[in-house]
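The instructor's notes for this session suggest beginning with a concrete chain rather than abstract definitions. Hand out the sequence below and ask the class to guess, before any prediction is shown, which regions might be ordered.
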Amino acid sequence: MKKGKAPKEPAGKNTPSRRQKVLFFCACNAVRSQMAEGFVKALYGDRLEAFSAGLKPAVLSPTATRVMAEIGIDISSHAPKSIEAFVGTKFDCVAMVCGDPKGVCPFLPHSQLDFTCAGCSGCCALHPFFPKGNRLLHGQFQNLIDREGAEHIEAFRRVRDEIREWLAENFGIEGK
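After discussion, reveal the predicted structure:
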């Protein structure tokens, strides 16, 4: 045996199982996907590795940060990321946490702008540049991107709690 190197463990023996990689996607990566990433890191980090991204990243929502802090989860260091940062990355699960984008579909070519999204049905995950996952989940949560401040705090708390419940349904018992 070479000096300074530990012997390799046989594959599958005494080695921790690999954490599954989960990507949370929503339009702006500023509220819903950030909350979901924060929950997974805090509650399921022993078995899941969380990431989040958006089509048009916006500034991290101070109200989302506040309502997550209320329950002891700090997302203040999270930075919104573009979905383009994950092109070619293979995930175990891609979870779309959009909900009510209703409008021009951002994934279709401009020649098809007459198509209007009637609500997120996950079709954007079919586009070739979208990161691939072995499992595709879809949760519909209210878009709060334009609703900052104390007057909207109850809506943020409701969405936070809905996301936590949805994660429990899809990922099981909290681990950490």
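Then share the key points. The chain has one domain: 20-171. Strands lie at 20-26, 48-54, 90-96, 103-104, 116-117, 132-138.
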